[in-house]
Structure formats: structure tokens, C-alpha cells
Amino acid sequence: MLYLERVPTYSILYGAFATVPILLVWIYVGWVIVLLGAETAAYLPSLLTGVQRRARAHGWQFLLALEMLQQLDRVRLTEGKGLSIDQLGAVLKVDALQLEPVLENLLALDWVGQLQEDRADATARVVLLADPDVTLLGPLLQALLLQREPSTEHLWLNGRWHLMVLRDVL
């Protein structure tokens, strides 16, 4: 504000060139408004869907995978037999975009499947294909948490992770 109050003094000294700094200030203010609007517009879908959790630390995708498998196991015996990505996001309180990489890993492991019905109004459902009582947890741990390599072999053997089944963590 102090700068704008002294504009008449600058205009006497610099003439027409005194308007250049004022123009630069207004360009800056305009861009700040535009960028704040873009930031708000980008964040608005997460606000409207009630996303309350953000990626926290290492192992976030593994945690999401376990929670997704827990929810799919819970609805496995219901009529729908599965949940859509949006329903999973709402139940887990995360954005559906955060679930996509986890879903890709679970699809690659053949632990879940996506069902697309013929109806036009139906959304794809994710269903649990793996039997939690016999499916070993090791492949999920290797895919999302800790690769089994020579440097981590003692941890794998002493932790007996390769012997755990999915039901142990659900």
C-alpha cells in the first residue's frame, strides 16, 4: 500500500514509466487469484466426496490393500458380492485415484477381479477372488511392502511372513 500511495511522486520523477511497476503488481495479484482458484478447483472433488485420509508414509499402499481386501471379504457373502471403486473409496475415506495403483497390484496377483455388467447404468464392481484361508500373504508383501532379496532374506525367514495366509491379517 505504501508503494501505491507514493505513485504521484514516482510519476513526476519517471513520467509514463511509473505505470510499469503498478502493472506488474496487478499482474501478480491476478495470477495469485487464478492459481488459488485452480488449486481450489483441483481439491474440490476430494472435499465433496469426504476424503479424510491422505498418503502418510511408507507402506501406505500395503495398508490400503489390506483394508480393501477386508472390505471385499466383508461383502463377499452379500448380494452384490463386491464394491465399486467409488464405494471402496467412500468406505475407506480415500480418493478413488489413490486406490487405482493398489487395485492394479491386486489384479496382477489375481486376488481380485473387476466385473462389468451388461447394463448401461451399472458400474464395474471389484470382487475378491482369492480364498483368504489358503492364499499366502507373501506375494502381496513383495509387491507393496518389501521385496524379497538376499539382503532381506533373514527378515523374511525370521518373520515367517512367507507362511502367513491372508486370513491372518484380515
Provide an overview of this structure:
- This protein is mainly α and 170 residues long.
- The protein has two domains: 2-49; 60-168, Orthogonal Bundle (Arc Repressor Mutant, subunit A).
- It has eight helices and three strands; from the N terminus they run H-H-H-H-E-H-H-E-E-H-H.
- The protein has a three-stranded antiparallel beta sheet.
- Helix 4 (60-75) packs across helix 6 and helix 5 (85-92) crosses helix 6 (96-108).
- It is elongated.
- The N and C termini lie far apart (61 Å).
Name the CATH homologous superfamily of the largest domain: Winged helix-like DNA-binding domain superfamily/Winged helix DNA-binding domain
Into which percentage range does the β-strand content fall? 5-15%
- Rg estimate, integer Å: 27 Å
Give the number of helices.
8
Global mean pLDDT: 82
Low-confidence stretches: none
Strand order of the largest sheet: 1-3-2
C-alpha geometry? elongated
- The total number of structural domains is 2
Query: What is the first-to-last residue Cα distance?
Result: 61 Å
User: What is the CATH architecture term of the largest domain?
Assistant: Orthogonal Bundle
The total beta strand count reads 3
